[in-house]
Amino acid sequence: MKDLIKKLVESVGPSGFEGQTRDIVRAAVVPNKSEVDAMGNLIVRIGKKGNDGLRIMLAAHIDEIGIMVTHIDENGFVRFTNIGGVYPRNCPGGRVRFTNGVEGVIGIEKLDDPGKAFTLEQLFVDVGALDKEHCPVKIGDVAGFERPFMDMGKRMVAKSMDDRIGAAVLIEVIKQIKTTPHELVFVFSTQEEVGIRGAQTAAYAVDPDMGISVDVTATGDTPKGLKMAVSVGKGPAIKVRDGGMLSDPRLVKVMVDCAEKANLPYQLEVLEGGTTDARAMQVSRAGMSAGCVSIPCRYVHSPSEMVDIDDVQNAVRLFVELLSHPIHLE
Amino acid sequence: MSTIKLNKSSAPKIGAEQIALLEKLSNAVGVSGDEGEIRSIVLETIKPFVDEVHEDAMGNIIAIHKAKTEKSLRVMVDAHMDEVGFMIIAEDEGGLYQFETVGGIDVRSLPAKTVWVGKDHLPGVIGAKPIHLTDKGEMDSTIHLDTLRIDVGKDPGGKVKVGDRATFATKFEQSGSVLFGKALDDRIGVVTLIELLKHAPDHIELQAAFTVQEELGLRGARVAAYGLNPDLAFAIDSTPSFDQPTWDGSENTQYNTRLGAGPAIYLSDAGTLSDPRLIRRLTQTAEKHAIPYQFRQPGGGGTDAGAIHLRRGGIPSVSISIPGRYAHTAVLVSRVEDWQHGLALLYHTLLELTPDVLSGER
Amino acid sequence: MTLELEKHLKEMICLPGLSANEAPIRDVISAAWRPLVDELSTSRLGSLHGLRRGSGSEPRPRILLAAHMDAIGLMVTTIDGGFLHFTEVGGLDPRILPCQRVTVHGRKDIPALIVQPADRLLPASMKGNPPPMDRLLVDTGLPAAEVEKLVRPGDLISFAQAPLNLTGGMLAGHTMDNRASVAAVTQCLAELQTRKHGCDVWAAATVQEEETLGGGFTSPFSIQPDLAIAIDVTFGKGPGAGDYRTHALGKGPTIGWGPNVHPAFHKKMKSVAEELDIPFQVEIMPRHSGTDAYAMQVVGAGYPTLVLGIPLRYMHTPVETVLLKDIARTGRLMAEFITRLEPDFHKTMRWDVES
């Protein structure tokens, strides 16, 4: 599974420009057929909705945060804006890779007051251009942050674990699931980081009975960090709420019961900021039961996001178990 | 107007007639949620050119120019009718009224302006405290909205009601190729869309949406797009130009758009990552016809495309805009040539639009 | 049929039913509505839909009366030595929280108290200042080990303030927002029992308004109303609240005016109130109405919406205060509107009307 994760996290696919990542997912789900919709979502359908089954949409987003060029200055320096939630503090000294392969480093203007937080407008990318005319990128070009995948054994670090790790989970579920009473619609969604856009239109088109997203969540297990009852390595987190939605409590209970029955570790997640594709699914059309399984992740939206392989594999087990049987909401 | 001879081989022009219509629309009042004046001008103007027209539950005008061919592309083109402004919220004594802003208005631009209030455009002023009575510390601080009043004179005679809208009292002016007016955002788009309807190609279904409440969160376009369910969409808007000099003379890297550099194609804003296939088609068309264009700098802000592209199963969308300085204030400045090029770009793009524009993944 | 409005409302405000967890309150509303409607169903999101058929010939116009039933409250985030840290469900001012009685919905319901740590236990900068929400605690008084057994992150905490009758027909309690409006819908349905109405009436007790307007976005999609009214509480004039957004208790419901309200709908509702001498106030909403109408208006291809407001003091506290008479009047106004609704009114509505 780590090979697949490495491939996924090392591809460049900021929101709206997910082509490279989509190709990796498409190859990984063969022999299952996949389709691509108007927003670039890649969709894989498995199973038929039986008498005791539901149509369930499972969503993991394949886009990542990144940057887009806004201006090339007279000397060939590149000014940029964010795609998704880019923290300025994580940028200086970092490297980026554009979808066309060009690489660059992020520099910063001299700060009047180094004690004050700076903004993205004070940063620029140096792509090694000798002047404006020879600059190999133009307005509108996009780049992802550039960091190689790092394997620490149990722990893995990469940029874009958010949410390629969710995509890896769903790919693995597709491979492992043998039978299901449900019609499962796996959506590798686009443009989540800019406002849950791909999942919103996919949810409308798929018209499922239930929607579950797989995404990362923050943790409370780092020095003087967030106050939060989720830790890396203690099992997948079943979301109770986040900044954008409250899960269907009946679905939370079904997932908790499923994990306990299968003897899988799990945690309950209350995240005070951020949200996932489940938010869009929940209020699509006449509404649906929605929830989320999260992979605990440290340093979210930095170029070094850390997850635990056991959490990932237990999430796969939880999904395979959950989706192989009828689901009854009480 | 039915006597106009339509020449479909060349792009429509921005001439005296179009500028006169813009003048009429710019001088009309249509604050978000109260677009009636604009609605009636638009309805009256487009009637001869459309096959179907209706007003929906929110007050959008939906006008269809049907295709003369089978299996044609259904193309939504959007321009919003509403403008930013004010709502009267309470009456003080003596013709003084408290007000709220409707849409994104910088309160710093309000003191000492003239306004029109209500359906009869009753003139009023937003005053300011005399400098003589203002101490130094006060002068350094922001003026807050709740200290401002609209003053219509001491005898309003029941002509102003709480709930009435108001907007800047700015009369449209033309100075050569320069256009001055309030609400060019987005009346310039409205006139452009009317011209496109007038010169609609026969091989596509042109779905014109003159929308409401854009300035309150793209609300009209949202329901219009759902109802129309088009194959693809273009939003026409007016986009701010911040192409003024920087204070230290350094290169302006945050101009957003530049006046005179042609229509601005949106790549990315707070609400939309434009469909790359449509961006490509616009730039190819511009280059083919030697129409100047610019990219609007990616960043915040947004247009109706933000609501349109997320409807139903997703609607490929892009925005194209006419640059205008000082948006959401009493007066905008735009140039006729940018407008002309914007119209030409949209006209040729529609004329040459074929279903293969959406082939391939975005 | 006479409704015991006070009893109905008191029963509702004694129940939990925080956003996304409306089952307890839904059961009680179901019981109240069942004898008053022809059909009752629950949406996939948990909104309660009651249909009372009209006597007109098909296709009959449909009017949706939507009042959200979810409540604000708290949710456990972490457990620390038997004390609970929490976050909010809906919007709460942390300054009103210390010393409030609450119920923790753990593996069983546990009575508890919101507490403010002693100044000596807070950072020096917070001394004498109101501590932010993440510094407040919920104390069950139980030993840590027992709390660990009973409570998990994600468990809900609701206010436990009992209803309190004030003088002059005023009633105080938690979750008047928006059970007062649900009571008005019940009142309307009760009044319709003895009246003839042509249109179909859909009563909806919607979910998750306080968080996502989730019910407002989804219920109209399946009901497809021709007219939709959001009934919600509005700011009552009172201590600390006196500007244009506030309305006096006792002067009847407010009829909203602004971009979330179809002007023809507004005009019609006003004319019914005037005709019958039902007192009302006009509520100015320059932008977002802050109600389900904001969502309902833009569902699908759009619906004509109206907002009715019931003035309420001390919103989003456990001592929200309303005047029962205002609730009854709101219900009656809706019933009168429905009784008088012409079958083709919704087809003749234009945004541009002389107001």
Estimate the strand proportion of chain C.
25-35%
Work out the oligomeric state of the chains in this entry. Answer: heterotrimer
Which two protein chains have the largest interface (Cβ within 8 Å of the partner's Cβ), and how many residues from each?
B-C, 33 and 24 residues
Mean of residue pLDDT of chain C?
96
Structural class of chain C: alpha+beta
Shape of chain C: elongated
The H/E string of chain C reads: HHEEEEEEEEHEEEHEHEEHEHEEHH
Let me know the largest β-sheet of chain C.
8 strands, mixed
In what order do the strands lie side by side in the largest sheet of chain B?
1-2-12-3-13-16-14-15
Query: Any idea what the radius of gyration of chain C is?
Result: 21 Å
**DSSP summary: helix tally of chain B:** 8
What share of the residues of chain C lie within helices?
25-40%
Distance between the termini of chain C: 35 Å
Going by helix content, strand content and strand pairing, the class of chain B is alpha+beta
Q: How many E strands of chain C?
A: 17
> Alpha-carbon distance between the termini of chain B?
41 Å
Q: Can you tell me the residue ranges of chain C where pLDDT is under 50 for at least 5 consecutive residues?
A: none
What does the secondary structure layout of this molecule look like, with pairings?
The complex is a heterotrimer of chains A (330), B (362) and C (355).
Chain A: H1 2-10, H2 19-29, E1 34-36, E2 42-46, E3 55-61, E4 66-72, E5 78-83, E6 95-98, E7 103-108, E8 123-126, E9 142-145, E10 150-152, E11 155-158, H3 161-176, E12 183-189, H4 197-206, E13 210-217, E14 237-241, H5 249-261, E15 267-270, H6 277-282, E16 289-296, E17 305-308, H7 309-323
Parallel strand pairs in A: 3-12, 3-13, 13-16, 14-15
Antiparallel strand pairs in A: 1-2, 2-12, 4-5, 4-9, 6-7, 6-9, 7-8, 10-11, 11-17, 14-16
Helix pairs in contact in A: 1-2, 1-3, 3-7
Chain B: H1 16-27, H2 36-46, E1 52-55, E2 61-65, E3 73-80, E4 85-91, E5 96-102, E6 113-117, E7 122-126, H3 136-139, E8 150-151, E9 165-168, E10 173-175, E11 178-181, H4 184-198, E12 204-211, H5 219-228, E13 232-241, E14 264-266, H6 276-288, E15 294-296, H7 305-308, E16 317-325, E17 332-335, H8 336-351
Parallel strand pairs in B: 3-12, 3-13, 13-16, 14-15
Antiparallel strand pairs in B: 1-2, 2-12, 4-5, 4-9, 5-8, 6-7, 6-9, 7-8, 10-11, 11-17, 14-16
Helix pairs in contact in B: 1-4, 4-8, 6-8
Chain C: H1 5-13, H2 23-33, E1 39-42, E2 48-52, E3 62-68, E4 73-80, E5 83-89, E6 101-105, E7 109-115, E8 137-139, H3 144-150, E9 156-159, E10 164-165, E11 170-173, H4 176-192, E12 200-206, H5 214-223, E13 227-235, E14 254-257, H6 263-276, E15 281-284, H7 292-296, E16 305-312, E17 320-323, H8 324-340, H9 345-348
Parallel strand pairs in C: 3-12, 3-13, 13-16, 14-15
Antiparallel strand pairs in C: 1-2, 2-12, 4-5, 4-9, 6-7, 6-9, 7-8, 10-11, 11-17, 14-16
